[in-house]
Structures are given as structure tokens and as C-alpha cells.
Amino acid sequence: MSKKVKTLVDPTTEEKIKEAARKLFTQKGFAAVKTRDIASEAGINLALLNYYFRSKEKLFEIIMVENLQQFLQGLSLISNEENKSFDDLIEKFAGSYTTWLTKNPDIFFFILSEIKNDLARLDMKLDSLIPERSGMRKKIQEMMKTEKMTDQDIFHLMSNMIGLIIAPFILKHLLQGISDGSEKQFNERLEERKKLIPLWLKAMKGVK
Amino acid sequence: MSKKVKTLVDPTTEEKIKEAARKLFTQKGFAAVKTRDIASEAGINLALLNYYFRSKEKLFEIIMVENLQQFLQGLSLISNEENKSFDDLIEKFAGSYTTWLTKNPDIFFFILSEIKNDLARLDMKLDSLIPERSGMRKKIQEMMKTEKMTDQDIFHLMSNMIGLIIAPFILKHLLQGISDGSEKQFNERLEERKKLIPLWLKAMKGVK
DNA sequence: GTCTATATTCTGATAGAC
DNA sequence: GTCTATCAGAATATAGAC
Predict the structure, then answer these.
(1) B170 interface with A at CB cutoff 8 Å
(2) Directed axis angle between helix B86-103 and helix B151-170, to 10°?
(3) A3 vs A90: CA distance, rounded Å
(4) Is residue B71 within 8 Å of B111, Cβ to Cβ?
(5) Angle subtended at Cα B160 by Cα B192 and Cα B109, rounded to the nearest 5 degrees
(6) Buried b vs exposed e over A110-135: b needs ≥16 C-beta within 10 Å?
(7) Which of B156, B168, B206 sits opposite A159 (nearest CB)?
(8) pTM of the prediction?
(9) What tens digit of pLDDT does each residue of B126-165 get?
(10) How many other CB atoms are there within 10 angstroms of residue A108's CB atom?
């Protein structure tokens, strides 16, 4: 209890370094960040970074894994909820992943650009990072039978769902140039999409 | 003519360096690439890089601008074709941008991850890079009137169209894990999507 | 634990021979 | 134009005082 309070009020040096590293690595990637930037951002001495985390690589790996966990958490949370209809699953997914992306756009782009460099190394770790991973696979296979979906259907449905969810974040600057460009309006549009995406996906269902 | 042939058969040193730089910068970004990597990839000496391109920054800027032009070329080509219906425009766009992405996935991810670092510097150059840029704006505004679309409609339509097009490329590894994972099948699915996306967008039109 | 000073390696760029 | 050798500065990491 006291530790929690202390953490909120007065972060330890280790925490300060980690938060600075998280911010910079997530925004700019491994190669573009210098250890001096991290030390400066954390308001500590350069030597302390190595004292606490041994090396830039070790520190980066911690941040990368945590970012990946963050990113995958939403997926597994949703897939673990039981007894849902397929449509309900899609509705939940569109809502919660849009919300997550609103809060963590940087992590999303980090995953997109940085993970591929370490994909081989990471793929082995994925199962330990997400114990629910095989559960997700099963869930999808179950649904393929229940809904009588083919591989082809799954490919297009997943592409469509994810595509519709992430597009506004990828196009943000471009889209803000079209309308009034305010953050408030952008977020309103996202709220609209949370409700529209499930409806859209239903409407697309009949198309062949 | 003789120059063109010579270029194909026996690239000059300058060309070799530029191609090596294009490959590495596009795949890994500015900071992650070392000048020695480029020299090695090009099969030439490190000093020649500076001899031909003065500095790593200058070389990168050339590649960045060319990548950006490549990326935007498709957009302006389509927007410049005259006398098309709105539906026709969408159909053309889905087809040609999917084709482009198939050929240039690296450039797409490069734009996504690298451009934001230089956005301010680039924004000023954009108009000179794409003379058709203001033409595109007009095209959109025309269509808003003709089709009686609001800002809101445009926001969602653009998000939906782009989202449906790019999703398979972003999800490629994940999606290949679901089905047989062959490149051939992935490309077949892309061909399906070229035809389906316009139909899907029509089906979504009625949803409110 | 934290700091200053320094060692070590890496990296971009150049000088000068050919 | 091309190469080898080398410089100057940056960047990571450590030694050692406090």
C-alpha cells in the first residue's frame, strides 16, 4: 500500500528511467534514441541508466515486450469472454480496440514499425507473452464451424474489421486536413465508428 | 538510348550506391542504417558515398523524396483522370492502390514510420512534389456537392476505403498464419478484394 | 545510489595516393 | 573515380570518488 502511494507521488529513479525510455523508444524507435536522450528526459545521470538496466539493448527489450503485451492484451481479453455471439464479439472488439488506439496511438505505430526487426526473436516468445494465444486460435476455429465460414471468409472479415478500426489513426493528419481538424471532432467521428463498424460489417456480409 | 541500355546492363557506381541506400533506408529508416552498411550493400568503398552524395543526410533526403513521390503518384494519376463517376473512381482506386502496395510494401511502411519525423520540413515541399495536390482537393470538393456528401461522410468513406485496402498488408503475417500462408494464396485474396472493396463500400453506403 | 571523469567502440566524413 | 588510412566527434559503457 505504502509502496503504491510512494510510486504515485515520488517515482523511483528506476521508474523515471523506464518511463523516459518508454516514451522515447515508443515514439522514435531503438536506433534513433540515444542513451543521453533518455537520461536527460528522466532528469538523471547517464551512468544510472547502465547501473539499473545494464545496457541500452536490455532497456529497449523491456519496453518492447511491455508494449507488445499492452498491444495484445486487448485481443486476449476480448477473446476470453465467454458465451458471446459472433456479432457481439465484433461489436465488443470494434469498441474496445478503438478506445485502446485512442489512448495508445504511439504503441500501435511502434508495433507496426519496430517489431518487424525482431520478429524472429519475438515469435518464439509470443506464446509465453500471451497464454491466451492458442485460446484465440481455438475461438476462431470454433466460429468458423458455427458460422460456416471458410478460410477465405475469415481472411476478408479480419482484414475488413481491423482495417476499418485502424484506418482513422493512420489517416489522422490527412483527415484532419479535410474537416475542421479539431481533436474533439476527430474523437466524435471515432465514437460514431464504434457503432457503425459492426453495422457496416453486417451489411458487407451479403456481398459476394 | 545507349545510356538506358548501359544503365540496365552495368549500373554506374552512383546508381549502385543509390539503390543500396534505397533498399536499406526504406526497410530500416534513417537512424538504423549506417553509411558502412550502404557501402557494403553497394559493393563499393565507404569514401565513394561521400564523393557522390556529400553526406548521409543528403542521400537520405533523395531517397525519402523519391519514396514519397512514388507513394503519391498513384493518387494523383487517379485523381487526374477526367469524367468519371464517383463509383468508378473508387473502383479504379481500390484496384490500382492494391496493385501498388503489392509491389511496394516497404515504401508504404517507410511512409508510415519515417515521414512523421520530417513532416514539418516535408509539408512545405508537398505542393511542389505533387502539382496535382490542389487538383485532388478540388476533386473531393466537387464530389461532395455532386454526391451531396458531408464532411462526416467523407471522413468515413475515406477511412473505410483506405482501411479496406491497406489492412491485408498490415496484417499479412497474422493472416498467413490462419490459412495456408502461401504468397500465391495471399495474392489471390488481394485480387478478390480489388473487386469486393467497391461492392462493399456500396453496401455500406445505406448504413446510418 | 548518484555523480564526474574517462575508457572504448562506433560512425560519418575527409586526406591523399593511385 | 576509386581506394586505404585516418581523423574528429558521437555514443555506449565503466571506473572510482562520494
Answers:
(1) yes
(2) 30
(3) 39
(4) yes
(5) 80
(6) bbbbbeebbeeebeeeeeebbebeee
(7) B168
(8) 0.92
(9) 667 666 666 667 777 788 888 889 999 999 999 999 999 9
(10) 19
